[in-house]
Amino acid sequence: MSDSVFLKRTIVKKNLWSESLQEERKLRIYLPPGYNEVLSYPVVYCQDGEEFFNFGRIATLAGQLILEEDVEPFIIVGVEVDVKVRTQEYAPFGNRFEQYLSCFAEEIIPFIEHNYPVRRTPAERILAGDSLGGSVSLHLALAYPSIFNRILSLSGAFYPETREMIEDEEDLSWLTINMVVGLQETEYKTDTGVYDFVDMNRKTKALLEERGATVSYREKDGVHLWGFWQKELPESLLYFF
Q: What is the total count of domains within the chain?
């Protein structure tokens, strides 16, 4: 089947005013082939929304999964972020972290559920993120377990603060997470230091499993870039669909 079929999709752009963040937040919404408002759809919410669409090619990949792999059609919501404040919003030590969690769970989710026929159970909502986006997705589930229990993490930046918060949890048997990390990510420089993402993800996997979470985990040849994550995205999505 030619790629042109997959390109026939609808991507809607919306702006949402966030009381929590006191600013507008841009959303990109992918509506699958054959989209019909009388049906209901599972939904994937992506941190770094612009990058998931532009570099992750998630809309094209979704079309391929739906049309070629017979995956049930799903909606994708990309939540855009200003890279200048990304760490402040996504990292647990960031000064906009709590406000971002509130914006996501208490403003973006109701907005989408009011305007689109997405399913409203935690099992039909997936949170996806790369690096700190994977970390903040996990934090959203820990803060709002009645809303989120499925996480797709691409090379999650699970810093010590995040692991300490996981250690404080007693029972994570409600949580399902799909994790992938690149074996060449052992000395990755971020704005807060140099980190070994392989070690970080192994430790996080162990902490989650000790608390009963369902963890699907893989290590592959790859670096901390979208070229790696884009190749891994279909397998991660198929895990949930």
A: 1
Amino acid at 50: E
Task: Using DSSP, state whether 72 is helix, strand or coil.
Answer: coil
155 C-beta neighbours (distance < 10 Å), count: 28
pLDDT tens profile 159-186: 999 999 999 999 999 999 999 999 999 9
Q: Are strands 176-182 and 43-46 parallel, antiparallel or unpaired?
A: unpaired
Nearest to 123 by CA among 66, 218, 180, 44: 44
Residue 231 structure tokens: 């190749």
Find residue 33's DSSP bridge partners: none
Q: Round to whole Å and give the CA distance between 140 and 89.
A: 12
Three-state DSSP class for 94?
A: coil
Domain span at residue 29 reads: 3-240
